[in-house]
Write a structure and sequence with these properties.
This protein is an alpha/beta fold and 308 residues long. It is built from 14 helices and eight strands. The protein is 46% helix and 16% strand. Helix 1 crosses helix 3 and helix 6 packs across helix 7. The N and C termini lie far apart (47 Å).
Amino acid sequence: MTSRRSALLIVLAVATLGGAGAVEAAQPGLGLRGPMRQRLLEKKAEEERPIDLQAILTGARKQTDAYGTDPAQRLDVYIPPHAHGVPILVMVHGGAWMIGDKANTGSVENKLKHWLTRGWIVVSVNYRMLPDAMAYEQAEDVADAVQWAQGYAEDWGGDPDKIILMGHSAGAHLVALVSSRPDMVGRPWAGTVVLDSAAMQVSATMAGRHPGFYDRAFGADPTYWAKASPMDQWTPRAVPMMLVCSTRRPDDPCDDARRFQAKARAAGRDMPVLPQALTHADINRTLGLPGAYTDAVDAFITERLKGR
């Protein structure tokens, strides 16, 4: 079990360094040697490093709760002191639909430094992963987590009408799917930030050349592909989304994002696309640091929270 966990963490490190294609390339070579292995081990250690919550915000507290019966259906809730009617950020980690964790530093640390210190509640979600659950079932977990957060928001001092959903990589696909089909949750939320997914139209992705682990996430049935595809499921009733994409990935997630944007615009809905000259990992890790990127995401969020 320990060796299995170590192997998966190395794959996670590859994913954060290089994106989906890098995960596929690394899997036969988990016994990597030399400088690459050292770099991946350092990345693994960084992702697992405990976050000093009090160094981020004195008086903040963290609680871990279950939103379902499976051991994977857990979430961490970070609550600022004296919270009352504050907005809530719900974060969904990535990891090729098979690895990752709600406590990974790349997913939550800089977001805590930015949003928690501004009085927001931050929720980081775990969900069932491959091989226990395929992509659509993972999206159902995310929907359950959002519904659970809405139900407990006031207990934490949050406002259930001021929830922003966010996800990176595989997590970006999951939040985009749930946002395209808000009936999976029932009660709509304010908006969603999609961080660098190249799986916006799963049916088209699966019909072309794609990483092998997509076959495990989406199977071989075109009906399932469509069901798990944000663009195929999208209607004008969808929750508003901002699509952030890396211009440094060979699989061109910005192309996917612009096609999705065009579909929304054709239906009279806006869907801002935010290209960034950042790696797949840094699209996630650097969000929350001071700068134009965080400012642009904040502007979308501020607009979505107006009047709520």
